[in-house]
Specification:
By secondary structure, the chain is an all-beta fold. The protein has a domain at 30-37 and 85-162: OB fold (Dihydrolipoamide Acetyltransferase, E2P) (Beta Barrel), CATH 2.40.50. It contains no helices and 10 strands. The strands form 2 sheets. A 6-stranded mixed β-sheet has the order 1-10-9-6-7-8, with no helix packed on it. Strands 2, 3, 4 and 5 form a 4-stranded antiparallel β-sheet that branches. The structure holds zinc ion. The site of zinc ion has 8 residues, from loops.
């Protein structure tokens, strides 16, 4: 299903009802992203990518070794914030999975962000009914609470509309 230059799958944590950030209960003292180096909290969240100064390639996730296209050293790569909106390029529903989470069924999509960067992510809910071409928007959903009461949230994508054929 890989179709873009760089992909990542946010594949852990339960799938729950769509929320931007869950209402806090009294046990939760703060919120952080499961992968804070890749996702900044907000509504919508921001995806942290990388742009090559030598060839202008934008990548996600950031590559710690240099540019995959032109081979520029890592010091030629700048952090870039990517909007969390795009369209579904490919979609697959998982009905059997070797891990307990996400609970099955869940749906993984290859999403082409409006910036042109491609990534793989889990759709919100079970994702049933999602189709290639559907518009999606990043959201964060609670997936765990740390011992210190910090709620950990993970990135999911919610379908926001369907482009007419
Ligand atoms: Zn490059």
């Amino acid at each position: 299903m890989r179709t873009g230059p760089a992909t990542v799958c946010f594949d852990s944590g339960p799938i729950v009802t769509p929320v931007a950030v869950a209402p806090y209960d009294c046990a939760v003292s703060s919120v952080r992203a499961r992968h804070p180096e890749l996702v900044r909290l907000g509504d919508p969240p921001t995806i942290v990518g990388q742009r090559c100064r030598a060839c202008d390639r934008t990548a996600f996730p950031p590559d710690p070794f240099g540019c995959e296209r032109c081979g520029a050293e890592v010091d030629q790569l700048d952090e870039v914030e990517l909007g969390a909106t795009g369209s579904i390029h490919a979609v697959a529903t998982v009905r059997r999975h070797h891990r307990p989470r996400p609970e099955t069924p869940f749906t993984v999509a290859t999403i082409v962000l409006d910036s042109g960067v491609s990534l793989k992510a889990v759709l919100d809910g079970d994702g049933s009914g999602a189709e290639v071409g559907d518009r999606v928007r990043g959201i964060t959903v609670p997936c765990a609470v740390d011992d210190d009461g910090t709620e950990i949230v993970d990135l999911r994508f919610a379908v926001t509309g369907r482009e007419s054929a």
